[in-house]
């Protein structure tokens, strides 16, 4: 069988790329080894984690948040089996949606493991061992990423789990130790804490959420601690011993020193993810990878081999679904002879905890390091009418603007619905807007988004409600 483009992997990068390529008139096939489409994100990542975050937030809210509004509810009871079924329904709805879209766009889908035999030749090996070879003009590798392993610690997905196991626990752990205070650790730590677990997070660095703005991370840590999270920062896990009744986790200061042992029912290892290229045959065709195993591509997402491209988690850049999707669209357009492009300066990032943390553009630390003079405008939700009336006043908005030109370089939000609010900043930054532009844009009242406008006004010290 012969195609214009074959995409290997149908995660957010691959399936979006395939659809855009088909929209542009090409004959397209996808190869996916999982039974369902949607990749990590839809099957064991973004979607299931957000389903559990949503359900566990509702559970916690029902437990305490309504009485003050004059609504009394009986103490909520957890039916974990049903909550996991609710999560599965969310996954199925989304993966079936992708299957429908692939069919609608007349994309041939092959179930099996793809291997590149040569430029223009992809072998597909099905689970039953059947092998077929497909011919194509272009190949797009979108094989994503896998869990990073902690040296000396075996993930058995029972007692020592990765994010995948942590989305499937059959009972709420009494004590959960999370290794890594990154996005996964804090999101899934939140889920199980809300459902009743005692959560201790062990982090190698002396801060949580590396890469996020330092002030935001510090405030966020304080909020999580108030919710009951315990943090052991500047610490490393050196050993995990598992037994019939859980695990003993040995923790040492990162710089060395006396070890401490923490008992846990479940240990979640969330220390990052690594590119997944196993069995693709990269070496045989001469595709280069870097020291971290990421496929090296040029500005047009093309590997060292003409006609073979790569996108998403398997190449450099933030490991985010929307980054993969945008690269999928860009490479499809490039292959079709158009001008596909991704603006890496404006990729939002969101941590879907409560409160949420959202950011786009540079942090204060990055601006300092680059020697860029900047102004800061900050506005707290305690001074925002809607946040006050809803009694959700934790957090603030911070706008960072170039001190000379006033161009907005970064926006950081911590607070309820931060993940929705960040996009007006993204659009502004995409158009190279200034804090003045944001400050002069009329915002509906009463909304939490008014805090974004006021933070922009605060850049020139003219916020009204502060
Ligand atoms: P993937 O989604 O990993 O898809 C790759 C696909 O390729 C897989 O289906 C795999 O089976 C298939 N494949 C691999 N090798 C082969 C082969 N040889 N042949 C055939 N098929 C193959 N990102 C966000 O932006 N927001 C979130 O809220 C978010 N939450 C997350 C929560 C968790 C718990 C995790 C683990 C990740 C989360 N992410 C989130 C990250 C997000 O899932 C990834 O950035 C995204 O899935 C990357 O997309 P991709 O298309 O590059 O790869
Ligand atoms: P991460 O890179 O976000 O965080 C890993 C954390 O582990 C870091 O703080 C790091 O310093 C720490 N760490 C590393 N080695 C350690 C060690 N030996 N001991 C203790 N701490 C150690 O990685 P995470 O949370 O696993 O997530 C993986 C990827 O998935 C991320 O790149 C993220 O972008 C993506 N993701 C995105 C989400 C979102 O957008 N909401 C949600 C979940 C995941």
TrEMBL record:
<dbReference type="GO" id="GO:0045333">
    <property type="term" value="P:cellular respiration"/>
</dbReference>
<dbReference type="InterPro" id="IPR050151">
    <property type="entry name" value="Class-I_Pyr_Nuc-Dis_Oxidored"/>
</dbReference>
<keyword id="KW-0285">Flavoprotein</keyword>
<comment type="similarity">
    <text>Belongs to the class-I pyridine nucleotide-disulfide oxidoreductase family.</text>
</comment>
<dbReference type="Pfam" id="PF02852">
    <property type="entry name" value="Pyr_redox_dim"/>
</dbReference>
<dbReference type="GO" id="GO:0006103">
    <property type="term" value="P:2-oxoglutarate metabolic process"/>
</dbReference>
<keyword id="KW-1015">Disulfide bond</keyword>
<feature type="disulfide bond" description="Redox-active">
    <location>
        <begin position="41"/>
        <end position="46"/>
    </location>
</feature>
<keyword id="KW-0520">NAD</keyword>
<feature type="binding site">
    <location>
        <begin position="319"/>
        <end position="322"/>
    </location>
    <ligand>
        <name>FAD</name>
    </ligand>
</feature>
<feature type="domain" description="FAD/NAD(P)-binding">
    <location>
        <begin position="3"/>
        <end position="328"/>
    </location>
</feature>
<protein>
    <recommendedName>
        <fullName>Dihydrolipoyl dehydrogenase</fullName>
        <ecNumber>1.8.1.4</ecNumber>
    </recommendedName>
</protein>
<dbReference type="Pfam" id="PF07992">
    <property type="entry name" value="Pyr_redox_2"/>
</dbReference>
<dbReference type="GO" id="GO:1990234">
    <property type="term" value="C:transferase complex"/>
</dbReference>
<dbReference type="InterPro" id="IPR012999">
    <property type="entry name" value="Pyr_OxRdtase_I_AS"/>
</dbReference>
<feature type="binding site">
    <location>
        <begin position="143"/>
        <end position="145"/>
    </location>
    <ligand>
        <name>FAD</name>
    </ligand>
</feature>
<dbReference type="InterPro" id="IPR016156">
    <property type="entry name" value="FAD/NAD-linked_Rdtase_dimer_sf"/>
</dbReference>
<feature type="binding site">
    <location>
        <position position="313"/>
    </location>
    <ligand>
        <name>FAD</name>
    </ligand>
</feature>
<feature type="binding site">
    <location>
        <position position="272"/>
    </location>
    <ligand>
        <name>NAD(+)</name>
    </ligand>
</feature>
<keyword id="KW-0560">Oxidoreductase</keyword>
<keyword id="KW-0274">FAD</keyword>
<feature type="binding site">
    <location>
        <begin position="180"/>
        <end position="187"/>
    </location>
    <ligand>
        <name>NAD(+)</name>
    </ligand>
</feature>
<dbReference type="GO" id="GO:0050660">
    <property type="term" value="F:flavin adenine dinucleotide binding"/>
</dbReference>
<dbReference type="GO" id="GO:0005737">
    <property type="term" value="C:cytoplasm"/>
</dbReference>
<dbReference type="InterPro" id="IPR006258">
    <property type="entry name" value="Lipoamide_DH"/>
</dbReference>
<feature type="domain" description="Pyridine nucleotide-disulphide oxidoreductase dimerisation">
    <location>
        <begin position="347"/>
        <end position="456"/>
    </location>
</feature>
<feature type="binding site">
    <location>
        <position position="50"/>
    </location>
    <ligand>
        <name>FAD</name>
    </ligand>
</feature>
<dbReference type="InterPro" id="IPR001100">
    <property type="entry name" value="Pyr_nuc-diS_OxRdtase"/>
</dbReference>
<feature type="binding site">
    <location>
        <position position="203"/>
    </location>
    <ligand>
        <name>NAD(+)</name>
    </ligand>
</feature>
<dbReference type="InterPro" id="IPR023753">
    <property type="entry name" value="FAD/NAD-binding_dom"/>
</dbReference>
<feature type="binding site">
    <location>
        <position position="114"/>
    </location>
    <ligand>
        <name>FAD</name>
    </ligand>
</feature>
<keyword id="KW-0676">Redox-active center</keyword>
<dbReference type="GO" id="GO:0004148">
    <property type="term" value="F:dihydrolipoyl dehydrogenase (NADH) activity"/>
</dbReference>
<feature type="active site" description="Proton acceptor">
    <location>
        <position position="445"/>
    </location>
</feature>
<dbReference type="InterPro" id="IPR004099">
    <property type="entry name" value="Pyr_nucl-diS_OxRdtase_dimer"/>
</dbReference>
<keyword id="KW-0547">Nucleotide-binding</keyword>
<dbReference type="InterPro" id="IPR036188">
    <property type="entry name" value="FAD/NAD-bd_sf"/>
</dbReference>
């Amino acid at each position: 069988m012969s195609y214009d483009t074959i995409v290997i992997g149908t995660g957010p990068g691959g399936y979006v790329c395939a659809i855009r390529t088909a929209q542009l008139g090409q004959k397209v096939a996808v190869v996916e080894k999982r039974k369902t489409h949607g990749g990590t994100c839809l099957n064991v990542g973004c979607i299931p984690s957000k389903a559990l975050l949503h359900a566990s937030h509702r559970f916690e809210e029902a437990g305490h948040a309504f009485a003050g509004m004059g609504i009394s509810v009986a103490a909520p009871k957890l039916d974990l089996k049903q909550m996991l079924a609710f999560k599965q329904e969310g996954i199925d709805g989304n993966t079936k949606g992708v299957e429908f879209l692939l069919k609608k766009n007349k994309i041939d889908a092959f179930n099996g493991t793809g291997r590149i035999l040569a430029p223009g030749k992809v072998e597909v090996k099905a689970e039953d061992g059947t092998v077929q070879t497909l011919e194509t003009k272009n190949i797009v590798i979108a094989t994503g990423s896998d869990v990073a392993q902690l040296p000396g610690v075996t993930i058995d997905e029972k007692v020592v789990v990765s994010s995948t196991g942590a989305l499937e626990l059959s009972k709420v752990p009494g004590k959960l130790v999370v290794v890594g205070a990154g996005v996964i650790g804090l999101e899934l730590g939140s889920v199980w804490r809300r459902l009743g677990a005692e959560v201790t997070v062990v982090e190698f660095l002396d801060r949580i959420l590396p890469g996020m703005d330092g002030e935001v991370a510090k405030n966020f840590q304080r909020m999580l601690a108030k919710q009951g999270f315990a943090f052991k920062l500047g610490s490393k896990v050196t050993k995990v011993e598992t037994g019939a009744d859980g695990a003993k986790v040995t923790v040492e200061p990162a710089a060395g020193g006396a070890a401490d042992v923490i008992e846990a029912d479940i240990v979640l290892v969330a220390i990052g993810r690594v590119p997944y290229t196993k069995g693709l045959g990269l070496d045989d065709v001469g595709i280069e990878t870097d020291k971290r195993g990421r496929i090296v591509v040029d500005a047009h997402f093309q590997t060292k081999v003409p006609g073979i491209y790569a996108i998403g988690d398997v190449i450099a850049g933030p490991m985010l679904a929307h980054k993969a999707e945008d690269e999928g669209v860009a490479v499809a357009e490039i292959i079709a002879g158009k001008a596909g492009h991704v603006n890496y300066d404006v990729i939002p990032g969101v941590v879907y905890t409560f409160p949420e943390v959202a950011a786009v553009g540079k942090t204060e630390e990055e601006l300092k390091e680059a020697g860029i003079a900047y102004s800061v405008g900050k506005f707290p939700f305690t001074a925002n009418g809607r946040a006050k009336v809803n009694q959700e006043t934790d957090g603030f908005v911070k706008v960072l603007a170039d001190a000379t030109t006033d161009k907005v370089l970064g926006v950081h939000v911590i607070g309820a619905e931060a993940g929705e609010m960040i996009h007006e900043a993204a659009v502004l930054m995409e158009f190279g807007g200034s804090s003045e532009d944001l400050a002069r844009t009329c915002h509906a009242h009463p909304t939490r988004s008014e805090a974004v406008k006021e933070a922009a006004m605060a850049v020139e010290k003219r916020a009204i409600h502060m």
